[in-house]
Amino acid sequence: MPRSRNASDISDLSETISEPESVISFNENVYFNMQNAAVSTTTYVGQARQTIEQLATNQCRWIKTPPSVDDVDASRVLDAMLRNAHGTGGETSERYTACAICACPEIHDQVNLARTWFMYLLWPFIAGTRQLSDLISDQATPTIEDTYGSLVSASSERRSRFRTDVNRRDGYRCVVSGLWDGPHVPASVNQGFVTLIGAHILKRAVGVFTMDRAHTAAATWNIIRHYSGMSEETIQNMERLVDDPSNGIMLGHDLYNMFDKLKIYLEQTEVSPQENEYVVREVGGRAWIHPRDLLGKTITFRNHDAPTRNLPLPNPHLIALHAGISRILHMSGASEVFAQILDKYDEAAGGNVRNLKSNGDPVHQLSSMMSALFIGASLIT
């Protein structure tokens, strides 16, 4: 794709519009609107909300999906993105999201923008939640060699150290339930043997997606950069950070499953200035957290291994991104649609989804599913 002189500053939403010239024009409009100090973020948000309200009444608002799978309401995707922008990345994220929506004057532009976020932001986070290729090891921690092997370049030493470091920092206890990791239960505590899991806040399936700067990976991470508020330096270092203690928390098995599937998340408290204090939340639809008294619990992270080792606390930007994506998937209805697509593919593959060939690229993975299901109207325009 040709680059304009401001391309390094412009969010590459890539597939929002199919023609390269239109993509460049769209990106420039978003960038210059963001830089326009004469228009407040509140004004842009108001305009974006009007656009979404109008789209919600239009019969052409649907993102087409496979037969027997629910289509996606583009207005719900845009609305969920806008509503969760500030909580995920602050005012900059909210301004970026509103400006992107405002840069889409036509219905087909708005649907294409929602499709881009559906494909390039939401799907990569879902792709790692299903065991498409025996992604769970004997310790129930994600391994990516089978499906994502071409993208994994983090050292084996760093990966093997991840659980040990996070466990030591969190005091060998589940940060939500308080249960002790089996080998470290004090003699005075009456608790059965429990093996805690080192949960990646940002999934390895997403983190290693940065290793190969292919077109789709670049699109995904440009969106993440603008939406999450993470610095370019953080994103460029994600290969190392994905297995850093700052990207991990210790959880019991059931809580790990729900956290990994983006059904539960941690919300930073508003009453405390401490960045390491969070409240346990769950997405709607059903009760995901058991026992129920854990819902709404306030937890505070600290390094239990200090002063022996200076282990970093969980990165608040990563926690906020995990929380934002969790809420967006539920509010937009995308999580249900992705589940239907995965189930349809699983059925078509005879219950053996590992036959999927995607070259380690989550976006191509979904495209491969579409092809396998003989979809005439692909999600990729």
Question: Roughly what is the average pLDDT, rounded to an integer?
Answer: 80
- The order of strands across the largest sheet is 5-6-7
Helix and strand string, N-terminal first? Answer: HHEEHHHHEHHHHEHEEEHHH
The major β-sheet equals:
3 strands, antiparallel
Tally of alpha and pi helices:
14
Description:
The chain is mostly helical and 381 residues long. The chain folds into two domains: 7-131 and 332-372, no CATH class; 145-330, no CATH class. The protein is built from 14 helices and seven strands. A three-stranded antiparallel β-sheet has the order 5-6-7. A two-stranded antiparallel ribbon has the order 1-2. Helix 3 (74-102) crosses helix 4 (107-127). The longest helix is centred in the N-terminal third of the chain and has 29 residues, at 74-102. It is globular, with a radius of gyration of 21 Å.
